[in-house]
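Each lists sequence, tokenised fold; shown next:
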Amino acid sequence: MRAIYVIPVVIVLIATILSSIFIVDERKRALVLQFGAVQQVKTDPGLGFKIPFIQEVVYYEDRILGLPTTPVEVTMLDDRRLVVDAFARWRIVDLVAFREAVGVGGEETALRRLEGIVNPAIQEVLGSVNSARVLSEDRTALMNQIRDIARRQALALGIDVIDVRLTRTDLPEQNLAATFARMRAEREREAADEIARGGEAAQRVRASADRTVVELTSDARRQAEVIRGEADAERNRIFAEAFGADPEFFAFTRSLTAYERAMQPGNSSIVMQPDSLFFEYLRSDTAPAPAAPAQPAVPAPATPVPAP
């Protein structure tokens, strides 16, 4: 009969002992509450003890947590509007203050409270500068200012804001079309300017090339006329020396040339007497002796005319 009573007692004792023991993971920290009031703070990992059935244990993250904020529209100092969202990293540093601030909501309530701190800090900092500074690559100083403001206000929640980063800075949807049209007009204007400058440069190159062609052609013509004149003078000199050495040969070759030209097909008809002097070399083997030896006329050397 005793065994019937002992076994339940043992079970109750074991359950009581087990309910008085709790384990804190190395990634967590714990608060021991009694009727909602904090009785014990457990920050080290390992076993902990509490009063069973009276006290309860609430666990909180000891790791760094993230907060992606909702997009917020900010008016810059130059009246330009931007849609900005950020990402904050935070950590619970004071469990008692955190519990008193967020109550039973825990981390979810803390995220909403923290977002209500970060977004106004973004509007405060970014609203005091020009949009060019926000859109530039070097905006670390602005993010540090937002972090410092959020950190001071979040300390009341037992939270330490470690870092705040701007993840997106875009124009509002209603301004995107107008901004795109303005950017397109600016690019088209720049393209037109480049085309005009290119056309002007092409005209200068073309005019220079045309001038060079005229100069080279004129110089080539001038040199050709000089060479032709010198060649004609040399030819006339050779002819004069050759014909002057043998006047009879000169008369003979000149007659043969005349025969060749006169007897070409298609020429006009020539009517003359058979005993004409023109056919003298065709009637006899030798030419009649001239009445008086005549010196052949030496043509004057051609004078080269320079090209204009």
